[in-house]
């Protein structure tokens, strides 16, 4: 009732419940919103009047430049009905429940979940309508956004529900509301007055009881104070008596203590005098002992100094003796060193002589070996030449045999040739006898192989070729060695010459050093 009264008479001055244009993230466009929460002029939370989505306030974004909204031309309409007149004149059976998907028509009663009952006062372009609610509040809402025909059909509201909603919307008249409010205020005032009277009576009774209780308590406190005062006076007298007695006792004790201290001081004085006398006697005795100790210390110091001087002299003597011994040892060491050096030089000379002797023997052996080698090479070359001659003779014999076979008519010539061949064979046999044993072994092995005579002849031919090559190489080596031999002899002669001259100088050196050694021994 108070809310209805305030809505009629403007009691609520807050912006909550008002309308404002804002951006709806669900509808994705700028729509009219109901203010749910605000602080001063700042709007914080709103509810979309189209989709009923509650969200924080977002400023309207306006229309985009790329897709401008088509200009709608409003046609002139007759004067709009007031809300109360429309509710009385329009048909309640045609009432529909608001939905942005359903289609609405002019002068149709609409039931909105937030704004209550209203009617379509004007049809606007772009699927928008103007609906007038209570107190002739006009709101622009969308409609006909359904995708199918079933979505665009509006949901009907029964006439009974419309009447109940209208009765709730209209409510009592302002006069009735004011009278009822006055009665309520008077009843509240009467109840408050009765409560105040009862409270005052209760308060007075409580105050009287408190006064009586305070009086009784005062009397009890006075009696108690009187009794305590008497007790304090008695206690005070007793304490005074005790204080006087204690004072007398303290005086007596102090007198006795004073007398005792006088006696103790006298005793202490006598004791101190006695201790002083003993200390003086001890001091005199200590002084005497100190003087005796000083004399003894002086004597000891003199004795130590004398001992020290004696030891220094002995140390000086010992030092001189050690130095003399050291010098003697150094001289002996020098002599021994010189003797060792002379011995070493002597051994070096002997080693040099032995070395030269060995080198001379070695050179002699090398020359002998060279001569033997040359002799062998000469013999080899000679044998090779003889073998070559024998080969040539054998070749001549073979050629003669071939001619003999061709000329059978000449037997005498053939016999001569055979004799020549035999002589050649004998010469070759003599030459081959001087060769190494392996050749004989090969001949012996070749003898039993009569079946393979052709193979043996081939092998002999290859051996002859190898011997020819060996003889050529031997002759070349012999020639080169003959050329190199005189050079080596000249080099050995040049090296040997200065060594013979140097020998007498080295022998003369140790004789000169040996002379001072004999003098040192003497």
Structure, explained:
The structure is a single chain. The chain has 522 residues and is α+β, with helices and mostly antiparallel strands. Helices cover 70% and strands 11% of the residues. It has eight helices and ten strands. The protein has helices spanning 2-9, 83-89, 149-152, 159-170, 174-406, 411-433, 437-446, 453-521; strands at residues 19-24, 29-39, 42-48, 54-56, 96-97, 109-112, 116-124, 128-133, 137-142, 155-156. A hairpin with a 3-residue loop joins strand 8 (128-133) and strand 9. Helix 5 (174-406) packs across helix 8. The chain starts with a helix and ends with a helix.
Labels describing this entry:
flat, alpha+beta, single chain, 6-stranded mixed beta sheet, disordered N terminus, 11% strand, disordered C terminus, 10 strands, 4-stranded antiparallel beta sheet, 522 residues
- Give a short account of the largest sheet: 6 strands, mixed
Assess the beta-strand content as a share of residues. 5-15%
Shape: flat
| Number of H/I helices | 8
- If you compute it from the alpha carbons, what radius of gyration comes out, rounded to the nearest whole angstrom? 82 Å
What letter string, H or E per element, gives the SSE order?
HEEEEHEEEEEHEHHHHH
Summarize the helices and strands and which ones pair or pack.
Elements: H1 2-9, E1 19-24, E2 29-39, E3 42-48, E4 54-56, H2 83-89, E5 96-97, E6 109-112, E7 116-124, E8 128-133, E9 137-142, H3 149-152, E10 155-156, H4 159-170, H5 174-406, H6 411-433, H7 437-446, H8 453-521
Parallel strand pairs: 5-6
Antiparallel strand pairs: 1-2, 2-3, 3-4, 5-10, 6-7, 7-8, 8-9
